[in-house]
Amino acid sequence: MAAYETILLDIADDIATITLNRPERLNAAPTGMADEIVAALDEALAAGARAVLMTGAGRAFCSGADLAGGRDRSSGVGGGDGAKASLDGHYNPMMKKFAELPVPLVTAVKGPAAGIGCSMALAGDFVLVGESGYFLQAFVNIGLVPDGGASWTLPRLIGKARAFEMMMLGEKIPAAKAAEWGMVYKTVSDDALLDEACALAAKLAKAPTLALGLMRRTAAENLDRDFGAALDAEANAQREAGNSQDAVIGAVAFLKKEKAVFTGK
User: Fold this and answer.
1) Strands 15-20, 7-12: parallel, antiparallel or unpaired by DSSP?
2) Which of 35, 36, 37, 222 is paired with 43 by a 20 to 30 Å CA distance?
3) Cα–Cα distance measured from residue 188 to residue 239, given in angstroms and rounded to the nearest whole number
């Protein structure tokens, strides 16, 4: 397993756990962290991981891009050209990697998920939030605009009015409000957060993960299709799922009234 400077990667029982590991900086994300996450996801998939869990070390998920300076200075530091280069070369490839994962992604959030950290957290198919967790589009507070796909994701996730509240007012959205808005899957106590996230990831890893990956892809792509095209996409995905080993396993188990043991193939 590769050595990483800003994250931890653990692969066990078909689950890849990525931990953002800069607790002294509230897991602020330099460009190097984005690159390491992409590499870790590639490593996890190559190792056969069937679900990914992402969380943060210490008391935060991710406080946003690292604006402290140094060679990894990012969004907005050094001018707009530098910010664009950081996004094009590092953060955007990470966000695309999340979107294109062929396996489910669970994110476990406590403390801040701000800026790019908000986008990273909301990339999860299942977002679990501890009682201390909150989401923040902080860009307006420093004269910048949302990135990491937030201007695309938020209106689709919570509607235009609430998305504009987040983006234009730059105020914290605490865990309870995020749940009320339908922005997250579930809120739990901080103490229970990691256990619940691990249990959910384990359940997903035992599911027919090829079909789950097709669900991820089809649902995302259908956001920008008309109804007829969405039906066609579903039919194509159903053909691919129906030709899988898991579909045979599932059908045989159903007929025998047994619990299916899926392989992800």
Assistant:
1) antiparallel
2) 222
3) 38
Sign of CA dihedral 41, 205, 13, 62: positive
Is residue 192 situated within a structural domain?
Answer: yes
Range of the domain at 100: 7-205
- Each residue's pLDDT tens digit, 110-122: 999 999 999 999 9
Least confident of 19-28, 72-81, 186-195: 72-81
Measured on CA atoms in the order 127, 100, 116, 48, is the torsion positive or negative? positive
Same domain, yes or no: 120 and 225: no
β pairing state of 105-109 and 51-56: parallel
Say yes or no to pLDDT of 74 above 50.
no
Grade residue 1 by pLDDT with cuts at 50, 70 and 90. Answer: confident
Task: Concatenate the DSSP letters of all residues of 111-140 into one string.
Answer: SEEETHHHHHHHTSSEEEEETT-EEE--GG
Number of other residues whose CB lies within 10 A of the CB of residue 8:
13
